[in-house]
């Protein structure tokens, strides 16, 4: 009788241990799944920021092929293609993302950016017009400004540039674009001001430094601006200033600036030497 009582108890104990074992296995499996999600997220971020762009393309292409319905992987592929300057493929990838469930207005803006990179300004304009006006982001307004520039709609461009500047903590690049817009319109003084503002925001932005020299040269001001520059940058800016002077007919001034550029450059400045030889011959 005692044995009959023990059998149900042992069975109950065995079932309880089995249940605990199954519960423990499930807990461990869930824990590993959570870790894998965290690891994958970190890896995705690395691929989108510091990895070689083409390696990132390969990574996201494989991941998206295995999980074609995951929009985050499709976005990663599209972003990586643009980083790799494979813009035509980027347009295809962003078009696919913009049509998926879970697509956001940002995806349409990124598609517009890709279209501009391939020269499809009309397509980009139509796409931006379809983005809700309540979607107010730096990138959206920067692209709107670029499209307005391409259409020579100067007032609209200025409005969009001004809005974009107010929506970012790093406005140097958009200030440089705005300044270049003013430069192409012949508003040299305003262009010079905007390039100066861009350099104050980012002293490493050599494009803005070069554009600033062009704006000053267009006003026949052939002195270098007081801005941070190393010796090589100084030589390159003197070369730009020389070419600007020569273009406007101030050839003797241009020759002097070329000689100064050659003397300033820490290495052999072949481009400036070639320009000077062409003038002197």
TrEMBL record:
Keyword Signal assigned: yes
This protein's name: Beta-barrel assembly-enhancing protease
Keywords, ordered alphabetically: Signal
InterPro entries: TPR-like_helical_dom_sf
Residue intervals passing through the bilayer: none
Gene3D superfamilies cross-referenced by the UniProt entry: Tetratricopeptide repeat domain
Signal peptide: 1-18
A Pfam family recorded for this sequence: TPR_16
